[in-house]
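Notes continue from the previous slide.

Worked example: a multi-chain complex. Inputs as given:
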Amino acid sequence: DTEVTQTPKHLVMGMTNKKSLKCEQHMGHRAMYWYKQKAKKPPELMFVYSYEKLSINESVPSRFSPECPNSSLLNLHLHALQPEDSALYLCASSQAGVGSPLHFGNGTRLTVT
Amino acid sequence: AQKITQTQPGMFVQEKEAVTLDCTYDTSDPSYGLFWYKQPSSGEMIFLIYQGSYDQQNATEGRYSLNFQKARKSANLVISASQLGDSAMYFCAMREGNDYKLSFGAGTTVTVRA
C-alpha cells in the first residue's frame, strides 16, 4: 500500500466546476509536491511546498491553486479548467536532501469535459 | 536543456532474462542524486533504486542494480531475471544540490514476454 493517499481516484468535471484534489501523508516528510502527467509522458512538476510554504511554482496557470493546511495535507483547488488539463495528477512527499526519494500517491485521473 | 535523457522509447525482454535501461544526465552540480521509478499501467510511481553522486559503489536493490559511470554521466538500470510483472514504464530522474525538484527523463516502456 502506498504511504501517500490521494482522493479521489477519478474525477470528471465540467469547465465551469470547482473541485479539489486531496493528498495526505504521515511519514513526517516536510516537502510535498504536485505533478501533472499526460499519457505516455513523464510527470511535470507543478508545485512544491517546503515546511508548509510554497517554494516552487512552475508557472502554473492560476486556475490551479495549491494549498498546504498542515505538514501532512496538500490540496489542489481546480477552477475553470480546460479540456487540455485532463491528466493524471500525482502527489508526492519527501524529506529534504538530494538523496531523499519522492514517495508518490496513486494519483487522481482527471477528465475535464 | 534536457537534464535526463532516456533514448529507448520501448523494449521487449524475454521472461527470466536481464534487461538494461539507459539513462544519461547533465549537471554541473557536484552533489546530485539519481533515481529510478517504475510506473505500471495502474499509474502509481514506484521508487526502485537510488545512486548518490558521491557513492563509490553501484547501488543494488534485489533484482535491480544501477550501473553508475560518473565520468560518462550515465546511470543505467539493470533488471535481472525479468518477470511478467516488470512490464511497465521506467523513469530515470535526478535531484541536484539543495533543489527539491525531481526532474524526469522521457521514460522507457518495458514489455516482458512469456
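Summary box: The interface with chain B takes residues 2, 31, 33, 40-43, 45, 48, 50, 55-56, 88, 90, 92, 94, 96, 98-107, 109 of chain A (CB under 8 Å). The radius of gyration of chain A is 13 Å.
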